[in-house]
Batch of 3 targets.
Target 1
Amino acid sequence: MKIRRKDRKQMSGIGQGKRYGWILAFFLAASLAAGGTGATLLAEESGAGITDDGGTQDAHDELGNMIPEDLGELYAKSAVLMDADSGRVLIAKDGNTMRPMASTTKIMTCILALEEGNLEDVVTASGEAASQPKVHLGMREGEQFVLGDLLYSLMLESHNDSAVAIAEHIAGSVPEFAEKMNAKAKEIGCSDAHFVSPNGLDASDEGGTHSISAVDLAMIMSYCVAKSPKAEEFLKITQTASYSFNDTEGKRSFSCNNHNLFLSMMEGAISGKTGFTGDAGYCYVGALRKDGKTFAVALLACGWPNNKNYKWTDTKKLMAYGLEHYEYRDVWQEPEIADIPVENGIASDGSLSGQSVAKVRLDTEDTELQVLLGDQEEVKISVTEDNTLTAPVAEGELVGTVTYYLGERQLKGYPLVACSDVEEKTVKWYFSKVITYWLDFSACDFLLK
């Protein structure tokens, strides 16, 4: 191709102005960089959080009443069936109403003693402990016992004096132990629980009445049997049919028998605690594990004398419904994820005009997600990514989430992260590009001369 003289002169004119090139290049690079970095797009907010333990959203977000039509009537004024592994409320009747809980309180006393005490500790009975009403062990002031023995007295026979002696040993006093109980309840996730005593006798303090909701009682039982670091010890105690022990001096002997009849009523029953006071009525909290499923049932105000068997009828009905209508299903899906544009980022080909994007990946090694689902329940997946990123972007940077939902309830969330670094277009980078183009253009001018 021929180059006309006029064109050659124009190009030569550029060559004659090279002495100004470095100055022009600097200002051009600065101008480009300023335009590239001046605008920022806010990433779209994601409403989905990321959970690490199977995705337990607060059970209190659930409705207080979730009763299947085919379940039938329940005797209890408040009742809950819970998936003990996830903490999800499956069935609830007035589940969030606070009511007195009687001796079901003692599951909290027991788990605190297991987690904060030493089973070989020696416990000395105070006058306060020895004065507790029936049902009691009959301990005497100054008498000493091994803590581990008293936990069997607490859970099998529901002895009120043992509860007070344990509380005073762990915390120094009943009020201080109640503070620990309330703190533990909050740690577990309870919001409708107020503990005043370690034994559950009807009581009040400046904070209110000793009471709890069925949702929170089921949550505490779920913690005791499935999540506590002392779950194995808790189950061992509450599954024991009978237990005998002596005071530390060997002067008196005691025998305890388990009054949790549910243990022999259904295959898979693993734990439970009964309770009764005049204010609370008959109460029960229990757990069952079968076919890979673990359920907790909590019943409050489940009849008054002479209806002490109502609690067994309700418990069996709820447990049987859970076993029949809920199964684990693998709901894992490979999400559809897209690259994300990166503002002011260097394109992969390194050009000035190339589109800069961040490659995205799911940050997990999971290939399955087992969820306990009812007959008609379906899990949906939501992918939320930032609309735009602003350079620099670091490899592994969080750029979105993949969240699994059951209705409005979040089950599990996984992070989406950038696959690699995306560097920023800085003044230095623009300057180097301009200089490169300038030198290439100058070389062309030299060859044309």
Note: Residues 427-448 form the longest helix (22 residues).
Target 2
Amino acid sequence: MKKILFTVLATLGINIGAKSQTERLDSGLKNILKITADRFENNNHAFLINLAKDNVVTVQIVHGALIEQISTPTNEFNFSINLPFDNEQEELTKFKELKISDEFKYYEFDGIPCYVMNFGNDQKLTYEIVLDVLREVYHFEKSDIFEFEIFDQGPIRR
């Protein structure tokens, strides 16, 4: 199971609250991005969104301040996609074949290859890239049922 970033944050006792919903991938993703922006953008709270299929987290959308490789000095609100490829060589190969993959930053977490990209507060672009990755790399469809979890990680300290 790929709850890498969530596991790290929970271990540190940072997890403040959670909201979970189960929906079709396309509508659920749009809803969760809107809910996150409405709830956290004005106060610049850090957040973590898990997109899970069959109890396995496939993609994480996070506030970029939570990942050193894409954090900025001001750490303004943003949507960043975090893709850990834990024991998923076939999926990693498919991801690297995507045109957009070159724009992601590579890092390792406990030896696990991960890719991350910051999309600012652009919900539409975040939605499109997440859908593209889930369709092209994992062969999911827009109509597949996913679980969406939002975790409030508290205000960003500057």
Note: Helices lie at 4-11, 25-40, 89-97, 123-136.
Target 3
Amino acid sequence: MNRILPLLLISMLFCFHGYSQETEEIATPHEQVPYSGKNELKLNGMYLLIGFPELSYERILNDESALGISVNFSIDDIEIDFMAIPYYRIYFGKKPAAGFFVEGNAAFYVVDDEEYTYYNGSTYEVKTENEIGAGIGLAVGSKFMTESGWVFEVFGGAGRNFLGSDNISVAYPRFGLTVGKRF
């Protein structure tokens, strides 16, 4: 009996030790990998409301950066007829190319310059010329993304105009509430 009891205890320890080493990983639905598309198309609702819709395309370079271009065009009577804004973004979020971002951008735009010439105080002539403006700017914002690839952005910033005459504003705005899809 003295020999059987220690042998039985040692064999039980080996059995428990061997069983404790087996692990099985069970994936839960909440541990899914975020949507991993590399392209985005977006519409800026803020500019749409003022009659200057903005469409954007963004190409994700890696988890922390992206290149894009936004194009605006006037559908109402506002000063700027057309604007193209190429940009580069650096992201600081947990999801790929999402979360808080800092954006560096350049803008190229066409502005209507209206010149009024008055005759005899009551009649006048309007002469409209297109002028070109260009500048560089910064913006900050945040991008939110669903697991199915829908994105929503909130951002704001401004840029400084370096090209054009005195009739063009020295700054251009950069703000928006965008909705889009990553694919």
Note: Residues 36-182 form a domain with the Porin fold (CATH 2.40.160.20).
